[in-house]
Every structure is written in structure tokens, then in C-alpha cells.
Design brief:
With about 1150 residues, this protein is mainly alpha-helical. The chain contains 41 helices and six strands. Among the domains are: about 5-35, no CATH class; about 790-955 and about 985-1000; about 1005-1080, Zinc/RING finger domain, C3HC4 (zinc finger) (Herpes Virus-1), CATH 3.30.40.10. Helices cover about 60% and strands about 0% of the residues. α6 packs parallel to α8 and α24 packs across α25. The longest helix has about 60 residues, at about 1055-1120. The radius of gyration is 48 Å and the shape is elongated.
């Protein structure tokens, strides 16, 4: 009986239930070995001619080959193959000097299995049954080199490493590759034997992976590392490795216990994850990616990989888990960005531009290679296990929805949140996944995407998967029409449509890709924009600190902060602009735009549920759009349009200067985008959110040709877009509709925010006005407005003009106020008034100065742009500015700002560095004066100028001409002089008329303007009488009764003809009385003048008589004194 303690120390002890089971197994092996030995001895004795006693074991092989017994001969061949392929033997004297054997692989040495040979003695041949036992012993040898024996004449050479390999999986894989290489040269019978040997290898590997303690505890082997090494050391034979693991997986799967396959390969996948975590984007281990691809391409191992990802990543929103905790998560986390929110940015700390560009190209190369590898893995996983793969992707996307909803990093620290790099890499993978059907805007497959995917409410996960829905959070997205998860205005609105058939794979991938862009592209872009703003502020602070001569330590600290932000900014930009992914993004944006247009044009008015709500066929876009609004727009998330805006903003504002390295959007893609923008901007019936529509107007600005675009092809395409697009005639109307729509947000949005929305629209207007075709469109809208001034709904151009003046008044007033405050602050600082202040108060003053300066800069930019728009519009569109509804407002605005800019107050706005604050008073004065000259031919406008008692004075235009002469606007000054003359003449006439119409009865006065009503109307709800022009101006901005806030439109006002007649009668009587009075005064003045003339005649007659008397006396005087007279005459 064997010693139990010795048995328990054996590495195979754990394979048996107890010691008794082991002893039975040993007895069975001995009996089998004895039977084999007896059979072998019998066969030998019949064929070896009585010389067995004289033959040594070295001669057995030669004699057996000459034997006529086929069984013995077959065993000899099997033994030979084992010795050749496994380099093991039971024959201590296997080498024979007279042997003629030549092995294919040049085996020079063998490992002698001493213990097994002793157990099986006298058997020395290894057959398939014994091979299993032989491999057990070979794999558990601590040092195989100790048991080496020579096998050929070349035995004096070094022992090949594979023969004495200690690592079990490495050794078995070497044997596996040799068998696969050798089997093609074997005959049919031996080929069967070789395949059985492969099965035995798989059995041993499977046993090792299921019971790793057999090898790892005693021999310090790391089986997972050995599997990784197969990929690392044999990159050229990956098909061999794949076949090897496939057989091992099949062998493990024969075990009926659940999870055995996952348990066997879990250490390998964890080690792969650790290797990826240690890597970086410039040098990630490609052999690990090959391992993952091998797993993904094998259905059994693919499931293991997916389960590993699901299990390692853990339940949702658990701070102790991370989606980067799986091997695929770790791979997705590779980037030039930190793996955590507060991580260190390790790239772009070089100041040299050449090194910088080289680093950018290297990172792009790494990101592109990684995306391609991950795409091939995910694609293979989908092919093997579509539902499970989509479930995994859906969980990742669902768990990270809050990335785009919570702005504060501190608020998300306890939530499960992927890194920026992870999110961008996931988008890169999904963009490649949708490339075959959602990157071409003209592809037929695009029409099979169903917009009602977001309507499905998940109550049962399995049922949802059967319907093709693996994301749970899409139902909560805010859609184009209505709030998230509901209809247009809450629970009372109709339910959203929902297809009855399962959603296609294309539909789900389409929405998954957009979700990934929402948590990736959009969030990273917002972060980069914030970093850019911080850079600008820090740069200004650094300039101020340097100029003020602050301590070197503080300046150095600011420089370090600035360099740190620069590293962050360039890392973010590099990650966003990886060329291959960016090109796919361009195509995807264009395809999404094309699909959205087809959804808008869906003319199926069927109310009953449909199998699918996908567009299915192409429809031609035409304006005006159909009155029918598809119900499917209640299912389309707003984020689809937001991603278009993100892409265009990224391309317009942040593209690297060397744009040749960054793919430009194709002309086809831009055509689709512009069509979609026009369709969504045309009316709020298809996109209710005015903020979103304002974002679309920003997209329009991003499509303009770039000022510094060195890519001539791209510039040409952009120019053609605004001149040759099929619906180019709709651009101006849509732009103005959005401009006006921003005011009607229905929300408490700050006035400043509305101006930020409108800023890009000014750039579009400037560009369009320079194109004659679009200038005609502006004029047509103005003419349409003039023809419909009293329409129920104020005309579009009239509302636009009214809001434009509101903007100008607010912005310029704020700008001048800020400039005056800046002057006070700067003067105080320059005069040294801050020097003696406490540090905290001086710091507060500095912050106030910076804040005021920033506000002044914004107001000056936007105010200047608004005045510029008014200037060029008034140059060719005059009559609507001079309409009674508008003329007073226009004149009052111009007078107010001109008086501030050229009057005594202009010195209040003078600061040292106007350019720093974008304050250009010369341009403002020039543009304002040009507006005067454009409109100066209208008597109505000139009267309105003179009626403005707040800012107008007869000296105003003289002061303006003086300024114009100094700033080089002499020609404008000459034209302004003519306007001044007309205004002065009409002012005199108006003053006389006002004098005539003094003492107006209160009932004839407009209650708002306190002026005589010319066309009184009665408001229906408040019953107040106001002048028509007054209420028209009010309704342009606010369609409500100014006295009780009830709804009011122009068609609701009631003309008060009776009051109008009374006013006209009073005015006529008053004028008649005044005129009669003037006539009487004139007559009296004439009579007085006549009396005065008569008196003058009498006085003149008396003087004449006196003169005659004197003349009559002259001769006498001359006679009396001739010399004197002569002298006087000479004088």
C-alpha cells in the first residue's frame, strides 16, 4: 500500500476523489501495461529468430520494422511519430548508432520518462493510450533537461529549446504545430493517428486550464501568460493559434458543468486587460488585440469574451466598477486623453511645431489602428452573438447617458462614467459599423431606418431584445415635437407612433451611433470649448501680469498653467480630429441629414399602426413644405440635429490650420445638410425648440466659406452651396424666421443669450447680402411686408426689422455704458488710486475691470454688427424703414446714438486701447450717418428725426459732419448736409403745426405716446383708444393688450371712426382758428405798417422842403465866399 502523504503531494491528486480512487487507478495502469508487454513479447518471439536474448533494446526498433506483424509495425510507427513530434520516450537507450532514422524536425534529443518507463516495463513503445500518461508525466517534470538522452548522431549539438520547454501550454502548442505540419506527409492511417494526437493535446490543455493549480502551484507557471505568448511570439501563424484554441474550447465544452469555459479563460482575459491598461496609444500590444480577435471569431470564445465584459464591468452605477475593467473596456480606453477625469495629459508638451506635428500624426495613426482592430472584434462578436453583443453595447451607452446631462465633474464622481477617450473610441467603432448603410446620404439602405425606435418602452428585457431594442434610455430623449417620452404638450397629446414589426439591425446601430456621439463628440467638444475659453482668459491675465511687472513667481505660475491648458487643448483636439474617423463622421452627418429630410416628407397619413415607419422610398424636397406634419417627428430625438451642429462647429472653428490633414465634408454631404437645415428652419411646426432652431442657424454659418481656407476645392464647394443649391431661394426666409423665432422662446432666457444665438446669423446675412441673388430675396420679403403691414400675423421682415432695432438699442446702450465705466476704472488705476488700496479690494477692482471689459467687448462686437446690418439693408430697402409704424423708432435710435458719439458725452467713452474692447466709434458714426443719408429723401423719416425731442438738436448734424471730416467720411458728410437741410425745413413746419395744435384734449391724445392720434383704434378687451401706428409697433414685439395683457392682433383692433372724425374736426377747427388768427394778425401788422409808412411820408416831405430852402441859399453863399466854396468842392 502506498504512503497516503506521498500520494497527496502528487500534482494530480486533485483529479481524484480520494486516495483509494488513486490506488485503483494505479492498479489498472499496471494491469494494462502488463498486458501490452505480454502482447509485445509474444509478437517479438515469433518473428525475431530466437536472438532476443542477444538483442539489446537498441535493436528492437530495427527488428520491429522488419517484422511481418502489422500491429507491431503500426505501434512502431506510432512510437516513432510520438518521439519525433513530442520528443519523449520510454526507451532509455533510444539512440542506436546503426539506426538510419531521419526525423523531419531534426530531433536530436529525447526526454526520457523514467517513472512511467519503470511502471510500464518492459514496454518501450508509446501508443495513443500510453501517450496520455506520457504527456502527464512530461508536463509535470520540473526540469526536463535533466532527463535528456541522445537520439541521433547530432546529439552533441545544443538541445532545441522546445524539447526541454517547461511551460506546458507552450510545449503542447509546439507539438500541435508540428503535428499539423507533419500530417500532410503521412499516409491515411497515420493521419488519423496524428488527429488523435491533436485531440490528446487539446485534452491536456483543457485539463491545465480547468485545473491550473496542477501547474501553477508546483512549477510556478502562469498559464494565462503562456496563452498570450502564443500570440506575441508567433504573429505569422495566428491561424494555427486560432485552431489550437478552438480545439481546446471544444474540449472544455464537453464538460457539462456551467461556466467551465468562462472559468478556464477568465485569467487569460484578465491578463490581457492588465496588459492593455499598462499600454499607451503609441505602443499598445497588437498581440493582445490578436487574442481578442481570435476569441471574437470563435462562437464559443466570443461568448466567453462578452460574458467577461459583462461580469467584469459589474452592475450599473457602482463606483467600485468601471467599464474599463474588462479587456475590451481597457482597449477602448486607449487614447491620447487621460483614462480618468482628473488624469494627467501626457502629450503635446513640446514647443517645436515640427515635433508637435509629428506627435499628432503618430497619435492619429495609433487611434486609427486601434479603431480598426476594435471594429473587427465587435463585428465578429455581432456575427457570433448579435443579441449579446448589442446588449453589452446598449448597457455601456445607457450607463453613461449622464455624461451629457451633468456638467459638474464632482456630481459624476460617484457615477459610472467612461473617459473621454473611451467615448470617442466607441464612436469610432460604431461609425465603422454603420458605414455600409448610414454613411452614404444616397444609399437605399438608409431608408430602412425606422424613426419610431425611440417610442418603444422597455418593460421586459427579453421581449425588448426580440423587438430589436437593446438601449433603454432612448425613450427618454427630447424629440423634435414634444417632450421626452410623450407627445407634444404632455400627457393629453396623442401617443407617439410605434412600429409593430421588430426593428432592423440597421435601425439600432444608427441610434447607438448617435448615442455614442452624444456621450462622446458632444461632451468632448463642450469640454474643449471650455478649455479654450480658459486659455483666452489666462492669456489675458498673463499679459496683464507681465505689463504690470508682477513678481516672477506669479508670472511663472501663470505660464505653467497656460502650458498645462495648452497640452489639454491640443490633446482634445487631436482626439477629435483623427482623420479616418472624422471622415466617417462627415458621411454619417450627411446621411442623417438625408434621412431626416425623408422623414419630414413622409406623406403617409395612415392612422393605424404600421409594420415599419421607415421612409422606404425617396421623396423630392420642395418648398413650401407640405401642410401634413408626420407623427414620426414626435419620435426623432433632438440630439440628431445637435450632432450635426457639433460636427460643423468643430470643423469651422477648431480644425487644425493644416486642413489638408483633416478630411473636408464632401459636396454631397453638405448638400444634404443644407437641405435638412432649411427643412427644419422653415417652420417651428417641425422643430418646436427655438434654441435648437437657433443652433441650426449656427450650422448655416458654419457652412460659409472659411476665411483662411487653403483648400480651394472645399472653398469652391461651399460657395456653390449658397448659389446653386436647389433650394437656395429659401435660405434668407428661413434665416429670418429663426432670427424672429428666438424671441418667442416661451422660456426665461436671458437677453444676452438671445444675442449669442443671433451672432452667427449676422455673419450669414453679411455673406448673403453680398450675393445679388440673395439681395433680391431680401427685397422681396421687404415688399411683402409693406403690402401686409396690418395683417393678423405681422409680416416676417417687419418683425425681423423690429427685433433688429431692439438688438441695436440694447447692445449699443450697454456698450456705451460699459465703455464709460471702463474709462472710470482705467483712469483710477492709471492715476495710482488703487496703489494704496488693500490687496483684496485691489483684486476686486481688477476683476471688475476684466468683467466690464469682457462685457464691453461682446456688446461692441454685436452692436457694431447690428448697425452694419441696418446700414446695408437701408441702402436698398427704404420705404419700410420710413413707414409710420417704423420711422419714429428708427429716427429716435439714430439720434440717440449719434448724439452720444459726436456730442459732448463722447469723451466719456474714450479709453487708451479701444481695439482691445472692439470699440470702433468711427465705424459706428460712419454707418449711422449712412443710414441717415439712405433714408433722408423721405419726408416721413425727416419729420420723425425732428420730432424726437429726446436726442435731436439743430447742432446734431453739424457735430456729426465735423467728426466725419476727421475720420475720412467727407463724402458722407456732404450727403448728410442735404439731410440736415430737409430736416431743418420740416422741423420748422412741424413746429408751427405743433404750435397750432397745442392744448389738445386728453381724449385725443395717445395714452402711450402722449401725441395727437391720427388714426385711433379701440382695443377689444381693455376698450382703450390708441393710435394705430402705436399699437402696430407694440404688437411687433408683444401680441398682447398693453393695458390688460390679453391676446391682441391687428385684425382684432376696432377702428374708432367717430373719434377719428372728431379729432379731424377739432384739428380742422383749430387750424381754422389759428389760420384766421394769423390772418388777422397779418392784417393788423399790415395796417400798422401802412400807418407807419404815412408818417414816414410826411416827415420826408418836411425834410425835402428844408433841403430846398438850403439849396436856394447856396448860390448866395457861394457868391459871398467863392474861395471857401471852391475849397470845399475840392475836398
Amino acid at each position: 500500500m502506498s504512503d497516503p502523504d506521498r500520494i497527496k503531494k502528487n500534482v494530480f491528486y486533485t483529479l481524484f476523489s480520494d486516495v483509494e480512487d488513486i490506488e485503483k487507478h494505479v492498479e489498472l495502469i499496471k494491469r494494462t501495461s502488463q498486458e501490452v508487454a505480454d502482447e509485445f513479447a509474444a509478437s517479438c518471439s515469433s518473428d525475431l529468430a530466437q536472438n532476443k536474448s542477444s538483442s539489446s533494446e537498441n535493436d528492437v526498433y530495427e527488428d520491429a520494422l522488419n517484422s511481418s506483424d502489422p500491429v507491431l509495425k503500426q505501434k512502431k510507427l506510432v512510437n516513432d511519430l510520438v518521439e519525433e513530434l513530442f520528443a519523449i520516450t520510454l526507451n532509455e537507450n533510444a539512440h542506436s548508432p546503426t539506426s538510419t532514422r531521419v526525423t523531419v524536425f531534426g530531433v536530436t534529443h529525447l526526454v526520457y520518462l523514467k517513472e512511467l518507463a519503470s511502471t510500464l516495463h518492459p514496454v518501450t513503445l508509446i501508443d495513443l493510450d500510453i501517450l496520455r500518461q506520457a504527456l502527464f508525466e512530461r508536463l509535470t517534470l520540473e526540469d526536463p533537461s535533466v532527463n535528456i538522452i541522445p537520439f541521433s548522431a547530432e546529439s552533441h549539438t545544443l538541445v532545441p529549446s522546445w524539447i526541454i520547454e517547461k511551460e506546458c501550454i507552450t510545449y503542447l502548442y509546439d507539438c500541435f504545430t508540428k503535428i499539423r505540419s507533419r500530417r500532410h506527409s503521412l499516409d491515411k492511417d497515420m493521419r488519423v493517428v496524428a488527429m488523435k494526437m491533436i485531440d490528446i493535446i487539446h485534452e491536456n490543455v483543457a485539463t491545465a486550464l480547468k485545473e491550473p493549480a496542477l501547474y501553477e502551484e508546483g512549477n510556478s507557471q502562469v498559464l494565462a501568460q503562456q496563452i498570450l505568448n502564443l500570440f506575441a511570439y508567433d504573429q505569422c501563424a495566428l491561424t494555427e493559434v486560432a485552431s489550437f484554441l478552438k480545439g481546446v474550447a471544444s474540449e472544455i465544452e464537453r464538460d457539462e458543468s456551467d461556466g467551465s469555459l468562462s472559468d478556464a479563460f477568465a485569467p487569460t482575459l484578465r491578463l490581457a486587460r492588465d496588459r492593455l491598461k499598462e499600454a499607451d496609444i503609441l505602443n499598445f500590444p497588437s498581440y493582445v488585440m490578436q487574442l481578442l480577435k481570435t476569441f471574437a471569431n470563435n462562437p464559443s470564445l466570443a461568448k466567453v469574451l462578452l460574458m467577461h465584459c459583462l461580469e467584469e464591468e459589474g452592475p450599473p452605477y457602482r463606483s467600485e466598477h468601471s467599464v474599463a475593467n474588462s479587456c475590451l473596456g481597457a482597449a477602448l480606453n486607449l487614447s491620447c486623453l487621460p483614462t480618468t477625469d482628473h488624469g494627467i495629459y501626457n502629450y503635446f508638451h513640446y514647443a517645436d511645431n515640427q515635433v508637435f506635428a509629428s506627435m499628432e500624426l503618430k497619435i492619429w495613426s495609433g487611434l486609427s489602428a486601434l479603431a480598426e482592430e476594435l471594429h473587427s472584434i465587435v463585428k465578429a462578436l455581432i456575427k457570433a452573438h448579435r443579441n449579446l453583443t448589442l446588449h453589452w453595447l446598449g448597457l455601456i451607452l445607457d450607463f453613461n447617458v449622464h455624461r451629457g446631462r451633468l456638467s459638474a465633474v464632482s456630481a459624476t464622481s460617484q457615477l459610472r462614467c467612461v473617459s473621454h477617450g473611451y467615448a470617442l473610441n466607441l464612436s469610432a467603432v460604431l461609425l465603422r459599423l454603420v458605414k455600409p448603410y448610414a454613411v452614404d446620404g444616397n444609399g437605399e439602405k438608409l431608408l430602412r431606418i425606422d424613426p419610431t425606435y425611440t417610442s418603444y418602452s422597455i418593460t421586459d428585457t427579453n421581449a425588448a431584445h426580440e423587438r430589436g431594442v437593446h438601449m433603454q434610455t432612448m425613450e427618454g430623449e427630447t424629440c423634435l415635437l414634444g417632450a421626452a417620452g410623450g407627445g407634444e404638450e404632455g400627457s393629453s397629446s396623442p401617443p407617439r407612433p410605434l412600429a409593430t414589426a421588430p426593428f432592423s439591425f440597421m435601425t439600432e446601430c444608427f441610434y447607438m451611433c448617435h448615442r455614442s456621439l452624444d456621450i462622446g463628440l458632444r461632451v468632448v467638444l463642450e469640454h474643449m470649448e471650455e478649455v479654450y475659453k480658459q486659455l483666452v482668459k489666462l492669456k489675458n491675465a498673463l499679459a496683464v501680469a507681465t505689463a504690470q511687472g508682477r513678481s516672477p513667481e506669479s508670472v511663472t505660475l501663470l505660464k505653467e498653467q497656460w502650458l498645462g491648458l495648452m497640452k489639454r487643448y491640443f490633446s482634445l483636439r487631436c482626439a477629435l480630429f483623427e482623420p479616418s474617423t472624422f471622415e466617417l463622421l462627415s458621411g454619417f452627418v450627411g446621411a442623417t441629414a438625408s434621412w431626416l429630410v425623408q422623414v419630414v416628407l413622409d406623406d403617409d397619413v395612415t392612422q393605424s399602426p404600421r409594420d415599419t415607419y421607415a421612409p422606404l422610398k425617396w421623396r423630392q424636397l420642395a418648398f413650401p413644405l407640405p401642410d401634413h406634419i408626420p407623427a414620426t417627428l414626435r419620435c426623432v430625438p433632438e440630439m440628431l440635429l445637435e450632432h450635426t451642429a457639433c460636427y460643423l462647429v468643430l470643423m469651422k472653428r477648431y480644425a487644425p490650420q493644416n486642413v489638408d490633414r483633416v478630411p473636408q465634408p464632401s459636396d454631397v454631404s453638405m448638400q444634404h445638410v443644407l437641405s435638412m437645415l432649411l427643412a427644419m428652419m422653415a417652420s417651428n411646426r417641425r422643430a418646436r425648440n427655438p434654441h435648437l432652431r437657433a443652433r441650426l442657424a449656427e450650422c448655416l454659418e458654419c457652412l460659409l466659406p472659411l476665411d483662411n481656407d487653403t483648400n480651394q476645392v472645399s472653398r469652391f464647394y461651399r460657395q456653390q452651396l449658397f448659389t446653386h443649391h436647389p433650394h437656395v431661394d429659401q435660405i434668407v426666409r428661413c434665416l429670418l424666421d429663426v432670427f424672429v423665432g428666438i424671441e418667442m422662446t416661451g422660456e426665461s432666457v436671458s437677453f444676452e443669450q438671445k444675442f449669442n444665438y443671433r451672432q452667427p446669423m449676422y455673419a450669414v446675412m453679411h455673406y448673403l447680402w453680398a450675393i445679388p441673388k440673395h439681395r433680391v430675396f431680401f427685397k422681396n420679403l421687404a415688399k411683402e411686408a409693406e403690402d401686409n403691414m396690418d395683417a393678423v400675423q405681422p409680416p416676417l421682415f417687419l418683425r425681423f426689422l423690429n427685433l433688429l432695432m431692439n438688438d441695436a438699442i440694447f447692445l449699443l446702450d450697454e456698450a456705451l455704458s460699459n465703455m464709460a465705466q471702463l474709462r472710470i476704472l482705467l483712469t483710477a488705476r492709471e492715476n495710482g488710486e488703487w496703489d494704496n488700496l488693500p490687496d483684496n479690494e485691489r483684486e476686486r477692482n481688477e476683476m471688475s475691470l476684466q468683467h466690464t471689459g469682457a462685457a464691453a467687448r461682446i456688446d461692441n462686437i454685436l452692436g457694431g454688427e447690428t448697425i452694419r446690418v441696418l446700414e446695408y439693408l437701408s441702402s436698398e430697402i427704404k420705404s419700410i424703414f420710413c413707414h409710420p409704424t417704423m420711422s419714429d423708432r428708427v429716427a429716435a435710435m439714430l439720434n440717440y446714438f449719434l448724439s452720444h458719439l459726436v456730442g459732448p458725452k463722447m469723451k466719456n467713452f474714450k479709453v487708451m486701447n479701444n481695439k482691445d474692447y472692439k470699440f470702433d466709434p468711427a465705424s459706428l458714426v460712419l454707418n449711422i450717418c449712412r443710414i441717415y443719408t439712405h433714408l433722408g429723401e423721405s419726408d416721413e423719416f425727416c419729420k420723425a428725426v425732428s420730432r424726437d425731442g429726446r436726442s435731436y438738436s439743430p447742432k446734431l448734424f453739424q457735430l456729426a459732419r465735423n467728426v466725419l471730416m476727421r475720420i475720412g467720411g467727407g463724402s458722407v458728410g456732404e450727403e448728410l448736409e442735404g439731410v440736415e437741410g430737409r430736416v431743418g425745413r420740416l422741423a420748422a413746419e412741424q413746429e408751427a403745426e405743433e404750435e397750432c395744435l397745442s392744448d389738445v384734449p386728453d381724449e385725443f391724445l395717445d395714452p402711450i405716446m402722449s401725441t395727437l392720434m391720427l388714426d385711433p383704434v379701440t382695443l377689444p378687451s381693455s376698450k382703450v383708444n390708441v393710435d394705430r401706428s402705436t399699437i402696430s409697433r407694440h404688437i411687433l414685439s408683444d401680441q398682447s393688450d398693453p393695458f390688460n395683457r390679453s391676446l391682441l392682433t391687428m385684425n382684432m383692433v376696432i377702428p374708432n371712426t367717430e373719434l377719428k372724425e372728431r379729432i379731424q374736426k377739432w384739428k380742422a377747427e383749430r387750424m381754422s382758428i389759428i389760420m384766421q388768427r394769423k390772418i388777422d394778425e397779418a392784417a393788423a401788422a399790415a395796417a400798422a405798417s401802412a400807418d407807419s409808412n404815412d408818417a414816414s411820408v410826411d416827415e420826408e416831405s418836411m425834410d425835402a422842403d428844408d433841403e430846398s430852402d438850403e439849396l436856394r441859399q447856396v448860390p448866395e453863399q457861394l457868391v459871398a465866399a467863392p474861395n471857401t466854396s471852391s475849397s470845399s468842392a475840392d475836398e
